[in-house]
């Protein structure tokens, strides 16, 4: 088995690489920038130059590859649009995989993508799913709805730093998951015959609303959150303004995703049959409370160490006599 991971430097992609290496797989990573991907090489992965937006680079990159896990997506700060990466880039990749006769392809979509055709990223994900299903590929489609890792910058850090936590619309519950657990499903999909040409929603142990997450962070940090509520109408107006500018297209498309969160409709599902198909144990899936507990414990420990060092330096400076001179005989 020779695995190629696309989008390997991202939040999810790097966990897929690590998991695959831990399981002894031969891992290759399609990368645009070798310098930014250097850490993957240090882990033991092979770096292959290529870009899904440049189709001519894909066939050489697929030589000797038998399986592909695709975790690539456009970022809000990218110079290329969601349409460029998540639609045209995926079309380029899927067509290249068919020509290369790749044995297995794992694609990441988003839960309930079909329900939001007016949200660009959701619509593109749904259309890509249909394109894959009509292809000759032996695929598995995985649909998580959110990562624990994304909650750190959204909730944990602002609360620790006394900054505002921005909440929008309804308190919509989302069944977030740890990217390490999602990576387990991706690797397991390559092994399980039951997952061939199938699609699965992925949900964590519990669906969490934004206010519930704030309360968990407050309890674990010992701090009170400064909550600022943003009217949905304001975000819609902001999206309309930034969409006039090319630099704002990705930002506008990401802002459109708040329409999903603002509906109040939970993103969750039963995972019983999914765990059975992938032969994974549900009790091994990390809970949000445990993830946040580990994060805050680590951060609070570092803060205590910093406070200790500062206190130690102050004591040492007080012991020094102001009358001593380094030039004294």
UniProtKB/TrEMBL annotation:
Biological processes annotated in GO: photosynthesis
GO cellular component, one term: photosystem II
The NAD(P)-binding domain, residue ranges: 7-191
Keywords assigned by UniProt, alphabetized: Photosynthesis, Photosystem II
Matches recorded under Gene3D superfamilies: NAD(P)-binding Rossmann-like Domain
Composition skew (Basic residues), residue ranges: 312-322
InterPro entries attached to this UniProt entry: HCF244-like (IPR044256), NAD(P)-bd_dom (IPR016040), NAD(P)-bd_dom_sf (IPR036291)
Positions of region (Disordered): 308-329
KW rRNA-binding (keyword) present: no
Pfam families in UniProt: NAD_binding_10
Stated name of the protein: SDR family oxidoreductase
């Amino acid at each position: 088995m020779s695995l190629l991971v696309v989008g390997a430097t991202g939040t999810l992609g790097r966990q897929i690489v690590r998991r695959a290496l831990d399981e002894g797989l031969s891992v290759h990573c399609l990368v645009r920038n070798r310098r930014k991907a250097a850490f993957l090489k240090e882990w033991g992965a092979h770096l292959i130059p290529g870009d899904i937006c440049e189709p001519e680079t894909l066939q050489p990159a697929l030589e000797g590859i038998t399986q592909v896990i695709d975790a690539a997506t456009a970022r809000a700060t990218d110079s290329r649009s969601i349409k460029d990466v998540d639609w045209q880039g995926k079309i380029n990749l899927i067509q290249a995989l068919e020509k290369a006769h790749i044995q297995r392809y794992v694609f990441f979509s988003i839960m309930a993508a079909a329900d939001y055709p007016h949200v660009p990223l959701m619509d593109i994900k749904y259309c890509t799913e249909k394109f894959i299903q009509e292809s000759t590929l032996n695929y598995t489609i995985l649909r998580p709805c959110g990562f624990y890792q994304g909650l750190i910058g959204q909730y944990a850090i602002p609360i620790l730093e006394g900054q505002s936590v921005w909440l929008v619309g309804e308190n919509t519950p989302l069944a977030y998951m740890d990217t390490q657990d999602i990576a387990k499903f991706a690797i397991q999909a390559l092994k399980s015959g039951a997952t061939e040409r199938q699609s699965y929603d992925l949900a964590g142990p519990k669906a969490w609303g934004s206010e519930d997450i704030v309360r968990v962070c407050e309890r674990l940090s010992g701090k009170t959150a400064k909550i600022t509520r943003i009217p949905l109408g304001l975000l819609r107006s902001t999206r309309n303004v930034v969409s006039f500018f090319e630099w704002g297209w990705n930002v506008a498309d990401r802002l459109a995703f708040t329409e999903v969160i603002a509906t109040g409709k939970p993103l969750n599902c039963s995972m019983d049959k999914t765990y059975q198909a992938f032969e994974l144990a549900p009790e091994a899936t990390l809970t949000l409370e445990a993830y946040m507990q580990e994060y805050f414990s680590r951060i609070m420990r570092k803060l205590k160490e910093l406070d200790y060092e500062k206190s130690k330096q102050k004591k040492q400076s007080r012991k020094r006599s102001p009358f001593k001179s380094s030039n004294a005989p």
